[in-house]
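User: structure tokens for this one?
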Amino acid sequence: MALCTPPLVVDPDAPEDRYSRLRLIPWWDQEKLRRARVMVVGAGALGNELLKSLALLGVGHVLIVDLDRIENSNLSRSVLYRAEDEGEFKAEVAARRVREINPDVQAKAVVGNVITDIGLGVFRAMDVVLGGLDNREARVAINQSCWRTGTPWVDGAIEVLIGVARVFVPPDGPCYECTMGETDYRLLNLRKSCTLLSRGEMLAGKVPTTPTTASVIAGIQVQEAVKLIHRRQDLPTLSGRGFVYNGLTYDSYVVTYARRNDCPAHDSFGEVLTTPLSAHETTLGQALSLARELLGRDAVLEFSRELVTGFTCERCGTSARRIDQLGRLTESDARCPGCGGMRRPEFTHSIQGNEPYLDMTLKDAGIPPFDILTARDGLKMVHFELGGDREEALGGAG
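Assistant:
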């Protein structure tokens, strides 16, 4: 497909800089890339290739999210890591190497879990999110967060010599969950116990991968990100589609996904009010007070994530308060310290005003910094961002 672009005029006497060859592309806008914010989730084989390309292209603000440490086996598939880095956090080393490749790039590392530790305000601040992940649970979380905040994301997956890169752009197209079938949901549920808590004893899956396939798929992902950042009608993207690559036979093709009207992941916040509140300093009661200032005295405070408020042991009849985000608790947390039985967790996703823990800060209750909360009164809703945490959450990536 030919792009309708004006003829390129090259000044042979113009001084060259780092991006001179990129500027030879008629539609290229280096300033847009310099201003862009991109979050890369996962700093393994795919993540390394994503970050390498983002650094070379001069994408100005990069946030790297990963909770793992570098292992010796990473060295055969990860261009950013060295033998002496073994045992260090992937995100921190990757951010350091990105800055070494290109000092123009402000790279921030977040050693954490994208499911529980990244506030929705972070997603809303990004131009694009790139996934270099190996599990469905994290993909589902990213997909829901991107859909709520209207942020495009590009998923990548590799195994041996096969890979796929797919683009999801809210709010109107298909999302990641639209592509999931019964088998995907069954495998997702295997990671949870009957109490909905994560099974701490389940080992992370070890997926066989090669650096060559990672390079191909990550290249497509970053290429799509560049087009999304430029926001030009004459730069078609893979929105709602996936590029499938088979390195064994060299077959490649594009698949188109259908949007499921009954998909549970299509909630969108729309307009979000920015506030100076901080998860570290604001209590649940104070956040509820703001909700009632916005919508009236009957309003409640709602979260986009489920909270555990306590455990009850039906075997020995004891109860204990425990306030934390559901995703941070494991099956072992539910075991009764008295009789050893499995306790039943109690859940909530809202604050009504009669809770005995209203003096807890949002952070202590499991809400991550720079999250987005909702004030609700019946069908009326106002979404508000914990803007006081912006600098902490984004740093140089903001």
